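[Meeting: bench + compute handoff]

Bench side (C.D.) handed over the final construct sequence. Compute side (W.E.) agreed to return the predicted structure before the next meeting so the bench team could plan truncations. Sequence as handed over:
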Amino acid sequence: MIILTGGAGFIGSCFLWKLNQEGVNDVLVVDHLNESEKWKNLIGKKYYDYIQKNDFYNAVVHRQVPKPEAIVHLGACSSTTLTDANYYIKNNYEYSKVMALWAFELGVPFIYASSAATYGEGENGYNDDDTGLMKLSPLNMYGFSKHMFDLWLQNNKYLDKTAGIKFFNVFGPNEYHKGDMRSVICKNYDEVSQKGVLKLFKSYKKEYPDGGQKRDFVYIKDVVEAMWFLLKNPSKTGIFNLGTGKARTWNDIAKSMFAAAGKKENVEYIEMPDYLKPKYQYFTEANMTKLHAAGYNKPFMELEDSVKDYCGYLKNKTYL
């Protein structure tokens, strides 16, 4: 049995799809199904049981859960705009510590989600070398809560027992439920395909033209391949970046979307909300040396190809 927390979420449900593709159906899915339509991500997936997050937490605390083969802990609050620090601490830090300590007690592999948000503005680069953790300065509480857990593992010398994944800008099917946290592609596909226009934030740094802000956009199908590699190779431990290693602009995203929709390029640059300006990342690019050195060498899809593939799902409103 594999325990998959956050298994109904975006990355979690797509990893469940990958597990099923590999013939792995003995999965205990843990999540928090609320008012959203996240439950739709589980339709058609194979798993042996589902349990709500709080019930699972209590069962683990009282050691009422059978020993799994591995724990893949993706469950967390992924919103970057909430202001309740206590909520982040409880869900992203304290919950993760309980899961990790249980995995160490059982001696089973523990894979967990960190985030590229831990890098902040990137003033110290995007190198996942463990020795540079203390230098990082996240821009929001979400990133800080993930950073706190990374540091807790390091301070307690647990990094050699875990595989942490710093996800960069992941996009793809099954993110429909994420509201404002959906990718620009997901949020704007209908407007691009029906009205032929895409709105992007203006730039407020002279070194970046409007739409020229750069991110490491990585397709979910590539992400789950790398996750599968880490699950199958539990000796590969530490914190790993997971992006393409190649930053692309928002204008590149726009061009790819218009091409996929068969529309003429028409981008409208709009003002960024004031609350977002001090927290906005203008550049992210994963240094992928560490994951490649661990033996993962599958090529990542080019942005244009992955956007085209994703737009097919968005057009038909289908899931992975």
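W.E. noted at the follow-up: The chain has a mean pLDDT of 95. C.D. will use this when planning the next construct.
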